[in-house]
Amino acid sequence: MKTQFVGAFLAVWANLALTQAFYSPKDDVLNLTPQNFGPAILDTDQLVAVEFYAPWCGHCQKLAPEWKKAATNLKGLVSLAAVDCDVEANKGICAMYEIKGFPTIKLFSPELRKNKKTGELTKVPTDYQGPRDAKSIVDSLLSSQPSNVQFVKWNEKDVKSKKSISLENFLENETLPKALLFTNKPSTTPLYKALSVDFKNRMAVGEVKQSEKNIVAEYGVESFPTLIVISPTEGTVKFEGKLNRDSLKKFMEKYALPPTDKNAKTGKSSPPPPAPKKEVKKKVVQAIEDDTMMASHCLNAPGNTVCVIAITGDEDKQDTLDTLSILKDTEKKSEGIDLQYGWIHADQASDITNTLQLSQDYPSIFIIHPSKQLYKNYVGSWSEKNLQQWLAQVSSGRINAWGYQGDLKINEKPAPVEAEEEIEEEVAHKNEPVRDEL
Ligand SMILES: *[C@@H]1O[C@H](CO)[C@@H](O)[C@H](O)[C@H]1NC(C)=O
User: Measuring from atom 3 of ligand 1, which residue has the nearest CA?
Assistant: First the structure.
């Protein structure tokens, strides 16, 4: 009698367990509800990846441990969240984002876009289509990680991308505290990108490469990495502590402007944002993905054509394409020259940047006059006005361009990473380095 009772009890308990949410508070995955959805998604400037799932779905059960692993690995860099679409209260959110299958992963970038109908500011997510193992998820999210890091240059003439700035301009606003990282790494680390976003509008965050000898000398920097802050009240202060996220954040917090009330934007208990209507955007700017496209879109164009080409990584892609569309729309037509617009992914541009000796900082813009074998990169601050002026000069033939030799080849797309157990393990054990490397 007694054993039977225990058996029945266990069976019921197991059934309940099957419908339980996948993620508990001790995981690094945030469980989303109608109450916290607005603040978690809208009131952050970091990238947020949201998994929409149903506990009974087999693919979701397979994804859960990978999602947790990726969340732990990316803690403090990118937020990973989940919505259980089986929970009655969450059904509104899942309907709003037109979730049709489980799991669906959507990425919310920081850019706010105006809903055309309501005029409200909202975030329009994109779908994550990549493999669903922890390593692929981590790699893909890091490649889309937002950054406000500015590359600080001594010479005005080295300011060649949207992200670069002369030291003079970087220091110009005397009331704004600044952080400067002196580094010998070729690219910005995820940790520094995350810090630049954490302190958005409260501190200018810059990076100085070791090769910027004049700036290195100016600040007496002798080893890399070195982080300093330049405070309006305390002067220049060098960071001496342990190079990890927590102590760096504490240090920067001490000198940054006080935080503004973020909740004013949406309100803590605001309902989820209005449904993002799928906008059918005209594809005005051509992606150049291989040599054939490069030939048909630019190199084989008629003699009076000048190609205007942007190079961008994932992180700035939408922004860059928006800028190009605006340039295209506002272009002043000239008699002589026809402008063709295109863009190349930074992963596929290394041959071209080598041949033309372009900057490795992205996004950047250059022009090619294929029939005359001339090119010129854009140098200057990345405002629509300045870019428009430059293009006006280009189309009236009033700029000096340089000759180039050789082919302008598009590199092959990097192969998608195979999901292998071994590599995943490595990622799982690499938590600290990814997060704490400056
Ligand atoms: C300097 O930065 C502060 C803080 O971001 C800002 O409020 C102020 O308008 C800036 N001043 C100038 C001259 O840009």
Answer: 176
Ligand 1 mean position to 306 CA, how many Å?
Answer: 38
- Three-class SS of 65-108: HHHHHHHHHCCCCCEEEEEECCCHHHHHHHHHCCCCCCCEEEEE
pLDDT score at 383: 85
- CATH-assigned architecture of domain 150-261: 3-Layer(aba) Sandwich (3.40)
In this prediction the pTM is 0.72
Three-state SS annotation for 137-154: HHHHHHHCCCCCCEEEEC
Coil, helix or strand at residue 215: helix
Question: pLDDT band at 424, cuts 50/70/90?
Answer: very low
Q: What is the DSSP letter of 414?
A: P
- Compute the chain's Rg from CA coordinates: 25
* Substitution candidate for ligand 1 out of 165, 169, 176 with most atoms within 8 A of CB: 176
Q: What are phi and psi of 16, to 5 degrees?
A: -60, -40
Query: For residue 362, which of 373, 374, 377 has the smallest C-alpha distance?
Result: 377
Selection from 221, 201, 203, 202 nearest residue 211 by Cα? 221
What is the CATH number assigned to the segment(s) 2-143?
Answer: 3.40.30.10
- The alpha carbon of 174 and the centre of ligand 1 are apart by a number of angstroms equal to 8
Which atom of ligand 1 is the closest one to the Cα of 257?
4
Please give the distance, rounded to the nearest whole angstrom, from the Cα atom of residue 201 to the centre of ligand 1.
Answer: 9
Kindly state if the Cβ of 175 falls inside 6 Å of ligand 1: yes
Distance 176 CA to ligand 1 centre (A): 6
pLDDT at 434: 61
Band (142; pLDDT cuts 50, 70, 90): very high
Q: Is 176 in the pocket of ligand 1 (CB under 6 A)?
A: yes
Tell me: the pLDDT tens digits for 316-365? 888 898 888 888 888 877 777 889 999 999 999 999 998 888 888 889 99
Q: What is the pLDDT of residue 18?
A: 45
Domain ranges of the chain: 2-143, 150-261, 286-403
